[in-house]
Amino acid sequence: MNPYILSTLLFALGLGTTITFASSHWLLAWMGLEINTLAIIPLMAQFHHPRAVEATTKYFLIQATAAATLLFASMSNAWLTGQWDIQHMHHPFPTTLIILALALKIGLAPLHSWMPEVLQGLDLTTGLILSTWQKLAPLSIILQIQPTNHTILIFLGLVSTLIGGWGGLNQTQLRKILAYSSIAHLGWMILILQFSPSLTMLTFLIYIFMTFSLFISFKLNYSTNINTLTTSWSKAPVLTSIIPLILLSLGGLPPLTGFMPKWLIIQELAKQELAPAATLAALSALLSLYFYLRLSYAMTLTISPNNTTGTLPWRLPTRQFTLPLAISASTTLCLLPLTPAMVALLTF
Fold it and tell me: Which residues cross the membrane (predicted)?
């Protein structure tokens, strides 16, 4: 893609998210979301492959549906209450409709089925943008409206954690596994959002670091399915030792960073007397941990057949372990000892 076009599209991505962040009026927030969607569509379709075009079309239709529902709900709110302000959402009908529209936008279960299919059709860099940056604007709106109906958020959060775990069990394609991982992590964020918004933001920040590390590692490794992971030792030995730890951190295994948000969320749910929800979320994390363990096993504990095809990567130029990856991987693995400081910041 032409560098000028690419820089314009990336600028538009940033602009759309910033407009939504800064807006207190529903029309401005809607406009920011639309700019965001229109900016990423050319990035998704830049590789002229049928799967990429199909993924782009699906994404456009889903986002257009969600945006139309959001606009309808905000107009209904203005009709019923006379308010266009995002923070004045007191009527249950438009509030519920807006939450469902935003859930469709970010891919929360049970409105999630587009997410694995779309991510599978994209390259890993665009998939990384879709899994991280594109979630920011809708999450900021959900944080602003502070819905009074807690039941729908708890339902969306629990269903997302369960489906994110179950869906990933049956997959061999890494991008689909990452999509279900994204759904599960979003479920944890939505589950705690109404009780501790700052904890939601901490969870999202850690999720961005972990997902960035994993996407970039797979990109440097040329990995798209489990079979390619088994020969990764000959392409990049250092990455092969780091990736299983990143995967286990995503699964929330102590003593890695990914354990911190799950620990704090379960603690907060217990304080809110929601022990059944906390138990169900913790059990659903085991499902996710199983398929992360399966990927780690494929990478480190299996020896691929020692034939010409298996040893071929030795003859290819190796990809470098880049500085951004080193920083994000270190954050992904070593942040758990700072948990008391994080808790102090959250309660400050």
Answer: 59-80, 92-112, 151-169, 190-216, 236-253, 274-293, 321-346
The DSSP code sequence of 42-107 is: HHHTSS--HHHHHHHHHHHHHHHHHHHHHHHHHHHHHHHHS--BTT----HHHHHHHHHHHHHHHT
Q: What residue spans of the chain are helical by DSSP H?
A: 3-22, 26-44, 50-81, 92-106, 114-120, 124-131, 133-145, 150-169, 174-193, 197-221, 226-229, 232-235, 237-251, 259-271, 275-300, 308-311, 323-334, 339-347
Q: How far apart are CA 144 and CA 32, in angstroms?
A: 15
pTM value?
A: 0.92
What distance in Å separates the CA atoms of residue 188 and residue 202, rounded to the nearest whole number?
Answer: 12
Residue 126: other Cβ atoms inside 10 A? 22
**Separation of alpha carbons 282 and 104, rounded Å:** 24
As to burial, measured by CB atoms within 10 angstroms (0-12 exposed, 13-18 middle, 19+ buried), residue 197 is: middle
pLDDT along the chain (348 residues), means of 10: 91 95 93 95 90 95 96 93 86 91 93 94 93 94 80 93 92 93 95 91 93 90 83 77 90 89 93 92 93 89 60 55 77 81 75
